[in-house]
TrEMBL record:
Belongs to the CTL (choline transporter-like) family. Keywords: Membrane, Transmembrane, Transmembrane helix. This is Choline transporter-like protein. Residues 1-10, 17-34 have a biased composition (Polar residues). It is found in: Cell membrane; Membrane. Choline transporter.
Length: 498
């Protein structure tokens, strides 16, 4: 495989790169890329592992105390004496709101399992529903919030609907290729039933933590503190839940990536060269030596990915507005620098080679840039489409929580609804991450040795190679166009020479 190709080479070089890739597909040695499943690994990013575990202990104690303080008796632990100056509302009980969180958790779990079941038989339809329904759903929620005089949430949902619509318009030409990648990824993971069982098991683990989290959150909602104090506490606990959910999702990502990589390396699940108990080995590494790297990456990766998707979408539709293009280009290059050290493809490298997170992210990105595959990844929107499905599941869960809360506690419906949205996103995301893991593994395998994809699905390999060739040609033409526009006129160059 030729690793000297840059994404901005000429079209002739692009054709040479594709020829080299296809030749590699016919003669590459995939066994040299095998993961270190049997060798010993060192513990990575131990500091962040300690921070995450300490955070769980502290937050868990705080949630338990706040929930217990209002459980069956108001101010059971006499905490109100420390918050007397913030008391503005009539206190309630934890059990007034805890069952509502339980209903929200049950709804989001059902949605997540439905996604897993339908992805195997109706993957294309499910992805289209996620893309087109989310914009409409956000707009409807915005109208309902304005009607209910929740102006902040009305504006927030209206902005979200507008951004979602603009993003879809900006990437509408990429969706056919995106759906193709997602279909093949679903096809791959659906043949690995143990992978689906891992996702279900981690959803149960998340539900156990959510039982404690919702117990404390219900105690906060039921407290007599003012709205600002309760909102601040809920924001802190929501950030904690986001990090915990991201860690569990990325742990599944590492486990599934290791399994999928092994299947592609050895040519199938039933191959004689497959190691014994590959899933258990991936699980062992994910929750021991590589867990610190997962905790570290989970803090930043999701936010950087989302920002990069939005900037790339707007950047492609700006046109000739040079001032706006300059500002967006500055943000784009800043985010691209961050992506080099924080990207989701690092989890495949972690699963396969046991590297630290930053080392894995950097190696994966350099691999993509040296082979030109980064152009293909930039064109693919599969991560954004899966995120839309996750957001839609969270919004449905939040809507149900608001409806149930409005019946008995109409003054606290938005607190319940906003936190239920996050709960729903975490649980549905645990189902979605199975497909995303397959997508990232496919791209890593294609960049390292196209033979792995060619042997698994020759038709898909040809479609990927053709799309990559087109994207590299497109980039080369844009670079040549930029150079021609920046070239000085001949008479000015002659004057400068004299």
């Amino acid at each position: 495989m030729n690793h000297t190709q840059t994404p901005f080479s000429s079209s002739d070089d692009d054709a040479g790169t594709m020829t080299t890739a296809q030749q590699s597909a016919g003669s590459g040695n995939s066994t040299s890329l095998g993961p270190t499943v049997d060798g010993s690994r060192h513990w990575r990013d131990v500091f962040w592992l300690g921070i995450f575990l300490l955070h769980l202990v502290v937050v868990g104690l705080a949630l338990g105390v706040l929930g217990l303080n209002r459980f069956r008796k108001k101010d059971r632990l006499n905490i109100d004496q420390y918050t007397e100056r913030f008391l503005e509302n009539q206190a309630g009980l934890t059990e007034d709101y805890w069952p509502l969180y339980a209903i929200a958790g049950a709804i989001s779990t059902v949605i997540g399992w439905i996604w897993l079941l339908l992805l195997g038989s109706h993957s294309n339809q499910m992805m289209k529903v996620s893309v087109h329904l989310l914009t409409t759903y956000l707009a409807v929620l915005s109208v309902l919030c304005f009607w209910g005089k929740f102006f902040f949430w009305g504006v927030a949902f209206a902005i979200g609907s507008g951004l979602q619509f603009l993003y879809i318009i900006s990437v509408i030409d990429r969706l056919p290729f995106t759906m193709l990648v997602l279909q093949r990824s679903v096809k791959l993971v659906w043949k690995l039933p143990e992978v689906m069982r891992v996702a279900c098991a981690f959803m149960l683990v998340m539900l156990i933590w959510l039982a404690l989290w919702s117990f404390g959150a219900a105690g906060v909602v039921a407290s007599s503190m003012g709205d600002s104090g309760r909102w601040w506490l809920l924001v802190v606990f929501s950030v904690s839940l986001f990090w915990t959910g991201a860690v569990l999702c990325n742990t599944v990502h590492v486990i599934v990536s290791g399994m999928v990589f092994l299947v592609l390396i050895h040519g199938g699940r039933e191959a004689a060269t497959m190691p014994r108990n590959p899933l258990l080995q991936s699980l062992r590494y994910a929750i021991t030596t590589s867990f610190g790297s997962i905790c570290y990456g989970s803090l930043f990766t999701a936010a950087i990915r989302t920002l990069r998707w939005e900037i790339r979408g707007f950047r492609s539709k700006i046109g000739n507005n040079e001032c706006l293009l300059c500002c967006v280009d500055f943000l784009f290059h800043l985010v691209e620098t961050l992506v080099r050290f924080f990207n989701k493809y690092a989890y495949v490298q972690i699963a396969v080679y046991g590297k630290s997170f930053n080392h894995s992210a950097r190696d994966a990105w350099e691999l993509f840039q040296s082979t030109g595959v980064e152009a293909l990844i930039g064109y693919d929107c599969s991560g954004a489409v899966l995120l839309m499905g996750t957001l839609l599941g969270g919004l449905i869960t939040g809507t149900c929580a608001v409806i149930f809360t409005r019946i008995k506690h109409p003054d606290r419906e938005m607190m319940m609804g906003s936190t239920a949205i996050l709960m729903g996103m975490v649980l549905v995301g645990l189902a979605m991450v199975v497909v995303e893991s397959a997508v990232t593994s496919i791209y890593i395998c294609y960049a390292e040795d196209p033979l792995l994809i060619h042997r698994w699905d020759p038709e898909f390999f040809n479609q990927m190679s053709e799309t990559l060739h087109q994207r590299l040609q497109h980039r080369s033409s844009r670079v040549r166009e930029g150079l021609s526009q920046n070239r000085l006129p001949d008479h000015i160059q002659e004057t400068i020479t004299v």
